Amino acid sequence: MTRVRIAALATVLWLALAGPAAAQGGGLLVDAGWLHAHLNDADLRVVDMTDAKDYRRGHVPGAVPLSLEAARVKVAAGGYRLPTADELARLVGDLGIGPDTHVVIYDDSGGLDAARFFFTLDVFGHRAVSILDGGIAAWRRQKLPLTIETARVARSAYRPVLLADRVASAEWVREHLTDATVALLDARTAAEYAGKDVRARRGGHIPGSVNVEWQQNLRPDGTFKSREELSALYAAQAVTPDKTVVTYCQTHHRAAHSYFVLRLLGYPRLVGYDRSWSEWGNRDDLPIAR
């Protein structure tokens, strides 16, 4: 039996044993009908990550706007980083998010921008975060109500705490390059992975990493593929739930999408290399492969 087939069987077994929460995504992915039915929930906060002009043209009632740039912090050396606890406290406070708030995020980019904010909240331990499957396009397809009224929310006092074991540094990744219990997942394009599309001082990938481009997570209409399809996609690359999976891309924007999918599938040990190739590709002391 090949290693790929063994990995696939291991994934199926894990998902069967993980129970209904893992099988159904644990509420991490909601559809437009669910969101419409829960819009008046007292503990709900909807976050719109579409373009500001699109928000003003019409958005889900009660949704508060958030730009991608506000959800991450630019680094002078290139790329982005997670906000500090103080920075995130100010952000979630402005959005009216408290420790018990169920946050539902949507965008118009197949969940790409939403996933970046999901990643931030997840690594800071926020317990209830979901992404709207298909984003604003799915909402519009169902002809659900839109508003042009800007949502006004009361500021909250909430200071999330970083869960350090969900974020990897370059040094941690380097120390685990030969660890068979760790899978490195590169969510960039095949050309970037191969070093043909160079977006740092050096091109290529982290040694031992496997490449599953983030767009493979989606159907043509921008909704997520079925759980079975996604499980098979990652198992085929030996990215299985028995391993600690480290996600990366150029800036951990695309990788956040893959991080979300693996969280959706119930993978228990996920780690995001937040500085990603914008750091690794620019540091001569770190090994690369092509």
Question: Would you give an account of this structure?
Answer:
By secondary structure, the chain is α/β, with parallel strands linked by helices. It is 33% helix and 13% strand. It folds into 2 domains: 3-16 and 164-280, Oxidized Rhodanese, domain 1 (3-Layer(aba) Sandwich); 31-141, Rhodanese-like domain (Oxidized Rhodanese, domain 1). It has helices at 3-18, 20-23, 32-37, 52-57, 85-94, 112-123, 135-141, 170-175, 190-194, 227-235, 254-264, 276-280; strands at 29-30, 44-48, 64-65, 73-74, 80-81, 102-106, 129-132, 182-186, 210-211, 244-248, 270-272.
CATH topology of the largest domain: Oxidized Rhodanese, domain 1
Instruction: Report the strand count.
Output: 11
General form: globular
Low-confidence runs: 14-26
pLDDT averaged over residues:
93
Strand order of the largest sheet: 1-7-6-2-3
Short description:
The chain is of the alpha/beta class and 290 residues long. 33% of the residues lie in helices and 13% in strands. The strands form 3 sheets. A 5-stranded parallel sheet has the order 1-7-6-2-3. It has a 4-stranded parallel sheet with strand order 9-8-10-11, with helices on one face. A two-stranded antiparallel sheet has the order 4-5.
